[in-house]
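Contributing new records

If you add data, match the layout below exactly. Sequence lines come first and carry their own label; structure lines follow with theirs. Keep one chain per record. Anything else will be rejected by the validation script.
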Amino acid sequence: MNDNIITSAVILGAGIFGVSTGVQLARRGVQVTIINDGPPANGASGRSLSWLNSARMRSKPYHLLRVAGIDRYRTLAARNPDVEWLRFDGGLTWDAEDEGNDIARVFDYEVSIGYDAQHIEPGKVAVTTPGVDADAVTSSGAIFNPGEGWVDLPRLIGHLLQEFAELGGRMVTDEGKGRILVEGGRAVGIETAKGKRYEADAVLLATGPEVPKMAAEVGQTIGDDTPIALLVQTKPLGHPLTAVLNTPRVAVRPAPGGALSIDADWAADQGVKVKPDGTYQVDRSVVEALLDEASKVLDGNPKIDVASIGIGGKPIPGDGEPVLGALKAIPSYYVAFSHSGATLGLIVGELLAYEIATGKEHPMLATFRPERFTQGR
């Protein structure tokens, strides 16, 4: 833990965790510099489905953190009611028609923990979620979660960076990749690819899928289960869908301007190859198959056209739980690495800023400490 008063911090990564933490620290009067290897949101935050939820089953601490995350978005939405990049129109999910269909059990569980859920028969889906093809819903029905929503992370990050700049925060995007400087056994700042040093009282590593590898460079272990993800942004089609859909073959959410965001794990597995130079090759036939799956779950089965494709690592820790807080073996060195970056984006920034600025541990992060990977857990 850092026992000194923090007056400055430097953050590596301008995704949602880095920017959210930077804004929160700046609100506390800390002088903050955020360093990124290009424009903000050029990594995982720029290719996230960004479904705001705590659906289905997970550990109690993780559920509570996600619910707190959704709460912060509701506050943001109340203060910015006219933005088109943050909506709470619910989420609808159903399972495949096979022995793995878990909808009834998941519904009972969600009700038992007070998570707002409705079990909907296929023929009544259109009442709760206009824009869905009811014929696509399997016989066990679907779960509608009215309190869920979605956010466009690049636009949210732009919104936060405006406040960050007004508070005196500094953004560096033209000096290439950075690395954490560890000297005398503690983190002292960041050095960019161009050799420029940015020293500070505290350092946060928030580089999405690169976090485990960068932590390993200083001898720290963070379990990593990061896959390659593929997110398709469509051209505007003016469809009436408002809820986020999580279905057996495709996930779909509305996007600003009448577009859709679409992804599926199978599409990334089958359609993306990593070339020797580290760049990606996309199988367009798989992308077309993904668009076809999206059309099948939408009322009217509309023709869907690609506007852009985002490819890259989807940050997922080795045990599925967030990795947040201080690397206790290296004073002044903090990390943020998690799946569900959208849902957790605002609350993680708030809690990490609390820990960095005060040197105290927040109890909501107690089970998410990095050192669990070196303690035989």
